[in-house]
Structure formats: structure tokens, C-alpha cells
Amino acid sequence: MPNKRYRDTFHPEALEELIQTELYYADVSPSLASDFFNEIESALEYLREFADAGQIIHSRNVRKSSLKRFPYNVVYVLENDEIFILAVAHQRSQPLYWFRRLSN
After folding, report:
1. What are the pLDDT digits (tens) for 65-101?
2. Please, which residues bridge with residue 75 across strands?
3. DSSP H or E run through 39
4. CATH 3.30.300.30 is held by the domain 7-90
5. HSE of 32 in the Cβ direction (CA atoms, 13 Å)?
6. Which residues pair with 88 in a beta bridge?
7. What average pLDDT does this structure show over 50-78?
8. Contact 87, 72 (CB under 8 A)
9. What is the DSSP code string of 53-94?
């Protein structure tokens, strides 16, 4: 039996984080920005198939999935058939800074 496919939606601030991170890497190297984008796409594709694979990090069913090459986590909530991405968070950022996004 095939796995359920989830769709993903970004919180506007999470999308901005993603864009700003790509721009940062583009300033360093266009190929690095491309690699970052491809890794994000691979992570999202995996989560669309296996959304419950992320580590639960908060009691409100908030999960994270770490990128392999880059020091970022995709922080998300699994709701019905949707992956709601709360943050594309650097692993050294302030913990739970994205928490207020849960109510938005």
C-alpha cells in the first residue's frame, strides 16, 4: 500500500527565512545556494512521504527534520494531510523562537 502524501505550506516568516538563507548562500557561492535549495527540496520530498519521521520537539506535535549538509532544521507541525512549516531554523538560533507562529 502506498504511503499517504502530504502537502506542505510555509508560514510566511518561514518562507522568508528560506529565501534569506538562499540569498546568503548565493552571496558565498551560487553553487552553494543551489546545493542548499536542492537539500531543502529533498527534505521536503521526504517529509511529504514520511511526515511522521521528524523528531517531536514540542507537545503540540511540532517536529523537526535536520538537513544533512547544512546546519538547519525544518520545523513543522503535522496537521491532517498538511505539513505546516513553522521555521527553517539555523541549528544555533534561539531555541523556540518560532513558537509564537503556532498561533498564527
Report:
1. 999 999 999 999 988 889 999 999 999 988 889 989 9
2. 64, 87
3. helix 30-49
4. no
5. 10
6. 74
7. 93
8. no
9. GSEEEETTTEEEEE-SSSSEEEEEEEETTEEEEEEEEETTSP
Q: Whose CA is closest to 14, among 82, 72, 84, 85? A: 85
Output the CA angle 74-76-81, nearest 5 degrees: 125
List the one residue out of 43, 27, 38, 29 whose CA is nearest residue 75: 43
Q: Grid coordinates in use for 66?
A: 535536520
Domain ranges of the chain: 7-90
Per-residue pLDDT tens over the stretch 5-30: 899 999 999 999 999 999 999 999 99
- Using CA atoms, how far residue 13 sits from 18, 50, 51, 84, in Å, is 9, 24, 21, 12
Q: What element of type H or E holds 5? A: none
pTM: 0.91
d(CA 57, CA 59): 7
For the chain, how big is the Rg over CA atoms in Å?
13
